[in-house]
Amino acid sequence: MKKSRVLFASLSGSVIEWYDFYLYGTATGLVFSTLFFPNENPAIGLLLAFATFGVGYAARPIGSIIFGHYGDKIGRKAALMLTLIGMGGSSFLIGLLPTFEAVGLIAPILLVFLRLIQGIALGGEWGGAVLLATEYAPKGLRGLYGSVPQLGVPIGLVAGSFSLTVISYLTTDAQFLAWGWRIPFLFSAVLIVLALWIRSGIEETPAFKEQQEKGEIVNVPIVETFRNNGRNVFHVIGLKLGDGFFNVFLMSFILVYATNYLGYGNERALTALTIGCATMILTIPLVGYLSDYIGRKVIYMTGVALLFILAVPYYMLIGNSETWLFVMQAVMLGVLWGAIFSTQGTLFSELFPANVRYTGLSVGYQLAAAIVGFGPMLWTTMAEAFGPSPWIFGGFMMGFLALSFILCLFIPDTRHVSTYESKQDQTMNM
């Protein structure tokens, strides 16, 4: 099978999954807080809306267990087809939901339910997309291949926010709130059909086939994962928390922070976010390629350290002018976080043996995501209590970045680990 088709299948599904997931995040502050959680106090409506945003993150560990189980027992391909259906179907239905004004409390209840489905689907998608790429990678290029599905995050976010921006320019404010915001959600149905067609034409990964041939498929992957690789699961959780909180801020809460607390318009905030994501699209494959030569651990630690150093200056500078807002989004999101994220999927997957790799990779990552997903609720409360204080927000980020840096000292440089020799993998992780 052509490796280019596998990479395209990994990337296309990842783009669409993140398009749907971040489309919801963009719409949270712009639409849902008004139409589904109306309140005389806008801060309370926003807080409730971000609670549903966090629900999607909280559901991701459930998806990691469900799809990790099927991915390690039945195959990566089957699990990835199901995640696409779950994400696409729920996003399409969000576009059809009635508002609070039309049906009362039923509206936010349905919204929360569909957000749960989104989270469950994404909880299984990310790990599977990474493995689809890395387990097909030729020797010496696993970092580059593993960075390709990571491109789905910035591309999906840009596509989601861009679609809402275009619709907002083409409609009046009243039209946008009445029906315009629904169009990008409904369009996800078309994208999902396309991605399903692409993924249906690929074969199972060589690493999973090897497990089948050797009879090394485990009965209950989640039990096996924590029995022999529990330490690495907790390593992944700690490693992800530092950059994870900053990521949620830089790619989601920045829209609220910049508009509600710094006084920028929606267009400026969205432009800053787009600049950061566009920069990341360049950073991810370049750093992924470099990680095969200088090591993923070195890149990861360097990125975390620089985020730590620039945490407080970031908050100080973005409030000074829109130029600094654009520059710092490019630096913090596009370059530094992009470099960390580029290596993350490959680095984490290399910590687990092939027979529980889908489960171990997904569960560790998504448990951390469940924690950081409630960051917007914390930051809304912090901003209401202290204002946009650089020391409060920067100090918050620095605490978790320090944890990730310390944990990174205790993991091996894994770029030479074979993804195909499962017995060797198991020995390394015992």
Automatic annotation (TrEMBL):
Subcellular locations according to the entry: Cell membrane
Keywords: Cell membrane, Membrane, Transmembrane, Transmembrane helix, Transport
Topology term for the membrane: Multi-pass membrane protein
UniProt keyword Membrane present: yes
Pfam families: MFS_1
Cross-referenced InterPro entries: MFS, MFS_dom, MFS_trans_sf, Sugar_transporter_CS
Residue intervals of the Major facilitator superfamily (MFS) profile domain: 6-415
Superkingdom, taxonomy of origin: Bacteria
Protein name: MFS family permease
Transmembrane segments: 43-67, 79-100, 106-132, 144-170, 176-198, 244-263, 269-291, 298-318, 324-348, 360-379, 391-411
